[in-house]
Amino acid sequence: MTPTINSDRLWQSIMALAEIGAIPGNGSCRMALTPEDTAARSLFLGWCRDLGLAHQQDAIGNQYLRRAGTDPSAKAVAFGSHLDTVPTGGRFDGIIGVLAGLEVLRALAEAGVRTKAPLELVNWMNEEGSRFRPAMMGSRVAAGAFSLADALAITDDNGVSVAQALAESGQAGPLPPAPRDWSAWLELHIEQGPVMEATGADIGIVVGTMHARYFQLSVIGEPSHVGPTEMNRRHDSLAAAAEVILAVEKIALAAEPNGRASATWIENIPNARGNVSHLTHLHCDVRHNDAPAAVAMEGELRAALAAIEKRRGVRIDVDPYATFGPIAFDPRLGALLRQKAEARQLATRDMIAAAGHDSVLMAPLFPSAMLFVPSVGGITHNPKEYSTPEQVARGAQVLLDAVLELAG
Ligand SMILES: [Zn+2]
């Protein structure tokens, strides 16, 4: 019996998971290590246990589910993604990568197929980075790109540390985070953009990623009274931050179509109605398909900051706290995914990922590849995020076909 994806079963699992942390408009809010994320992890783990998968969890909360192969000496073929969401999350970003992986294992069990190599399904902790920065935290720590101690000390906006959140949610496992013994890593994800829909592609073969550079900016001015202080004597950090936000946008507009940039987060001090603000923190990033172009965007940002400092008599400290990419994914795995998609009469298109993904951290360690399915309207990080049951099932089937070939 040829293993085949059960589209209904996969869709029902996606919809059942979406009920946890459901928000109006068909979205989900399950930020990392919140009670909602923890409940989703438990539901997922229950499904894995029903399938007889062996469960391991590491100290940063990554979940590894293993199906044994017939050859004990063979390295595992691994796949998965993440179940956490942004505050205005949809039902698909990350989730389909984990639940399609589960459906791959369910289909194999149903067909009575045992692969030569073991298979490992992964749910990475805190991919989104909405609550604890940086994003891709679990995979970053497992890859050795960020130390466990540094990650555990990171706090959210309420001062809760990752260590505390892991302890309170019961998600800290006994395994030391480390690269696993894998022969290949695959991740199915939604495109999160409009290109596949516009071009009629069923399966996106992700050949690489943009290069992104992340910054925390601290605008330091001087506190004063909103009334008596003359305008020319003010050093207003919030007004300066407003200029920074627009400068970031302008840099991206000039770098179209392959450059992007946005300021996303702001903290204003003292944030009091009678006060001219004296300290404003911002987060922003610049990214581009071409790495030197992203570095040039950072140069433009720094020049814009220097001009704002001078004009307004403020200081702007720049903390370049993280980068990702550019990553070139494994061309052989990309070719395998393309071949499996074409064998099922699916239209493929080579893509560059504009968003960060856990696969970015796996690519230097293992032959790695990603495949995309279309996002209706290109909408993402939004409750309206949607892919059809057929689109998701096609991606899962190509994943299954590729896993079968790799695992023997
Ligand atoms: Zn994602």
SSE blueprint and pairings:
Blueprint: H1 7-18, E1 22-23, E2 27-28, H2 35-50, E3 54-57, E4 63-67, E5 76-82, H3 95-111, E6 119-124, H4 137-142, H5 148-153, H6 162-169, E7 182-190, H7 195-199, E8 203-209, E9 211-220, E10 224-225, H8 237-254, E11 259-269, E12 275-276, E13 279-288, H9 291-312, E14 315-324, H10 331-343, E15 348-353, H11 358-362, E16 368-373, H12 389-407
Parallel strand pairs: 5-6, 5-7, 7-16, 8-15
Antiparallel strand pairs: 1-2, 3-4, 4-6, 8-16, 9-13, 9-14, 10-12, 11-13
The chain binds zinc ion.
The site of zinc ion has 6 residues, from loops.
Keywords summarizing the entry:
408 residues, Alpha-Beta Plaits, 2 domains, four-stranded antiparallel β-sheet, 12 helices
Strand segment tally? 16
Rg calc: 23 Å
Shape: globular
Total helices: the number is 12
- Which parts are unreliable, with pLDDT below 50 for 5 consecutive residues or more? none
Q: Which ligands occur here?
A: zinc ion
Largest sheet, order of strands side by side? 3-4-6-5-7-16-8-15
Question: Helices and strands: which structural class?
Answer: alpha/beta
Please report the first level of CATH classification, the CATH class of the largest domain. Answer: Alpha Beta
